[in-house]
Amino acid sequence: MPDLSLVVLVGATGSGKSTFAARHFKPTEVVSSDFCRALVSDDENDQSASGDAFDVLHYIAGKRLAAGRLTVVDATNVQPESRKQLVALARQYDVLPVAIVLDIPEQVCAERNAARPDRAGLPRRVIQRHQRELRRSLRHLEREGFRKVHVLRGAAETDAAEIVRERRFNDLRHVTGPFDIVGDIHGCRSELETLLTGLGYALTRDDAGRPVDAAHPDGRTAVFVGDLVDRGPDSPGVLRLVMGMVAAGHALCVPGNHENKLGRYLSGRKVQHSHGLAETIEQLEREDAADPDFRARVREFIESLVSHYVLDGGALVVCHAGLPEKYHGRTSGRVRSHALYGDTTGETDEFGLPVRYPWAEDYRGRAAVVYGHTPTPSANWLNNTICLDTGAVFGGRMTALRWPERELVDVPAERVWYEPTKPLASEAPGGADGRPLDLADVTGRRSVETRHMGRIAVKEENAAAALEVMSRFAVDPRLLTYLPPTMAPCATSKEEGYLEHPAEAFAAYRADGVRQVVCEEKHMGSRAVVLLCRDADVARERFGTPQGTQAPQGTQGPEGALGGASGALYTRTGRPFFDDPEMTERVLGRLGRCVDAAGLWAELDTDWLLLDAELMPWSLKAAGLLRHQYAAVGAAARTVFPGVLTALESAAARGVDVADLLGRQRERAEDAEAFTEAYGRYCWPVGDTTRGRPGEREEPAPGRPGRAEAGSGGTDGLDGIRLAPFQILAARGRSLAALPHDEQLALIDRLIEAEASLEAAPAEGDAPYLNRLLAPTGRLVVDTEDEASVAAGVRWWLELTAAGGEGMVVKPLGALLRGADGRLVQPGIKCRGREYLRIIYGPEYTRPDNLARLRVRHLGHKRSLALREYALGLEALDRLAAGEPLWRVHEAVFAVLALESEPVDPRL
User: Fold this and answer.
1) Cα separation of 306 and 168, whole Å?
2) Where in this protein does the record put region Disordered (predicted)?
3) Of 387, 480, 583, 660, whose Cβ has the fewest other Cβ atoms within 10 Å?
4) Contact 370, 405 (CB under 8 A)
5) Distances from the Cα of 773 to the Cαs of 189, 591, 727, 763, 776, in angstroms?
């Protein structure tokens, strides 16, 4: 029996159906009418509950079949009406119905029932009625719709029976390729030879010089999506080559609607000689003289073709006209019809051709669907589907897809062999204008499957909050390919005067079995993700960015024409950093020149990069927060404390005992001044756009970029802006998240060196740089099991924070590590400096009583959140690298943003 089918046991009561089912099938595969009757009435023999019981049975069976599970129905099923419902259920879910009849003598059935206490009193006439109905049914089971009928006569034959599960003909999941999938050929043999040769296949020819086979030296398998024949100059030649490749095991082939029509003609059925069939018939007639058996072989070949194939572990589905996910691996006339002809809206266009239903726009399946049938000017991915019919017979191109590389290879048609009824256009499923995202992709309670952490749940209310942010504030979702995870703080320190201390971070990683960690300087800015494309054309091709915006000075193409976005620069919640797209392009333009000068485009074999970074100063993004929350506190303190201290000092001079109060107020004033100094480090002037913002100084702090001198002019507009990249997340076809951090930082160092070389020798037309854009990231490698190394790490942190630094992030050097229990370890633990935490917890947080209270921190939720978001980020990168559809990448990205709305202490 097929491995996916609805197995219907047929037999009188007492024939041993339940025993037979228990012997040959898993308990979960069997749905018993007795069990369902007991579910609804607490008595499996209560015949009055049969109606409800069978409703339950059909519901359970339907759910199993929908999930692709073999299902066995254990009931008498001797009446045609009961079997009719089951056959309809099998057809509804496009599986084959199989009948197993247990034809057991009446006396044996009676004896078995008598041995059961619950059926000892069953009247003999019930068994007799079942036997009569069974006899009437045996001749008609196949006509009722059962694809296979097995009749077991007598107890001995039933006991000796063996169940053999056969793979469905379309189930080739065990065949993993690699594959070269060829689009519609339509008799263009010469172009097919050229394409196969370009793909690396060696052709074999017969004595007449005709190609009869082609094999790839690396063992690749060709897969043909059908429509081998009609319209073109040599349909017999194409058939001869493809049939030879299939017979030799070098190729697979699915039928197209043109093969289906040719097969009906060769079988003697009446068909219209239209749409190129007349040309094929004429060519076959010329073939008859040289090879009289050719027609018979073609008919046999066409009859052997299977509607579609599921390949490569279920990751690839090949058919002729496309196939929704619910039909993958299913077997029915409806599935075959859709695979051959697709689905139509019932309308016709101005050319009299049927309007195709755009099923690919709604496709959300995990398997890539590769098909043909509807000619398009070029092959484009849409929602993990691609149409390879690029109109070779109409003068277009013949296209193949290399799998799993997802690389397209095509050759031009030698001429227009057949005039198309209508011009080629991207209106077919797979065209570039399909709907890439849908509200249903993100709303409601969701569960996202990840490779590194299993299923991660997203609550409905969190999804709603993310949707609000994403729809109103975020960058174009086509550019939003990744969101960075939140970061867990180190465990609360017991060191006097400290809330966080690096010793705790080192101890945590040591406990997880991570010996080498890298301490990276925590920059005083905002987390930023940079999607950088080599140019605007790459951005349009790879990510679908719009065209038609004026490119900023210095980023235009050689002709200075209208450009477009060459990427994106956004916050960790997906919002663009700059309201002005031109400013974004300036940053991307400078960074792109650095990547080019460093040789990374070629070295990484990519035309786009995704980077994780910090953008400084913090005031670029958080000006409102600084002005209304932090600057207000500093201004109030500076206004109040001088008067308070003056009054108290005057009172003390007059002999009033206010020494304790004066001391406390002086400490408070010092704390407030330290608070102002702490947040002030995160603000500095940027161009002429931030003059007068709170906490900014006209004179830069040591080591920070300053403002352009009046009249200096001529800069590229990035005055004062610093970008500190610390990780390259992905490149074309690759996720780089597992690249060790020392190697990551080495790549970043090359970018910084490249910018220095550009500054020393700017290209013609480049504006001079007032300051370098790229900032280095200080780092130190620590051995968590070496006390001296740990002590050096602590000293480095103390020096860093004493000089005004924010702190550091401690990461496993190897990246993407798992602990002894197999779980992911934290990708990074932040250890913030004593003075920086003053901004977070308030000016007076360092007082002993306040520290004692603050040390009661609940970090479990924050740590869990960090790991879940990390796993989702990795999943987004993996899906992006694999070329999965936008909705799949966006699903993981959106989930990160949704988790950000989970309630957690914002100070952690």
Assistant:
1) 10
2) 544-565, 689-717
3) 660
4) no
5) 57, 8, 16, 16, 10
CA distance 603 to 601: 6
Mean pLDDT by 10 residues, the chain (908 residues): 95 92 96 93 85 94 95 94 95 95 92 83 86 90 93 94 94 95 96 97 94 96 96 95 97 96 93 91 90 93 96 96 94 93 73 72 87 89 89 94 93 92 53 59 87 92 91 89 93 90 94 94 91 90 62 36 72 90 90 93 94 88 72 83 86 87 86 81 66 37 40 58 94 93 95 85 56 89 95 95 92 90 92 89 87 88 93 94 83 94 84
Q: Dihedral (C-alpha) 493, 494, 495, 499: value to the nearest 10 degrees? A: 40
DSSP run (H or E) holding 73: strand 71-74
Query: Strand order in 5-10's β-sheet?
Result: 30-32, 71-74, 5-10, 96-103, 148-153
Of 578, 412, 568, 358, residue with least CA distance to 482: 568
Under 8 Å between Cβ of 458 and 470? no
Round to whole Å and give the CA distance between 693 and 706. 15
Using an 8 Å Cβ cutoff, are 7 and 70 in contact?
Answer: yes
Kindly report the length of the chain. Answer: 908
CA distance 534 to 273: 52
* Residues 351/287, Cβ–Cβ less than 8 Å: no
395: left (phi over 0), alpha (psi -120 to 50) or beta: left
Amino acid, res. 578: F
Q: List Cβ neighbours of 330 (8 Å cut-off, separation of 6 or more).
A: 4, 93, 94, 95
Question: Could you give the residue ranges of the DSSP H alpha helices within 786-885?
Answer: 787-802, 836-841, 848-854, 860-881
- Are 418 and 186 in contact by the 8 Å Cβ rule? The answer is yes
Query: What pTM value is reported for the model?
Result: 0.71
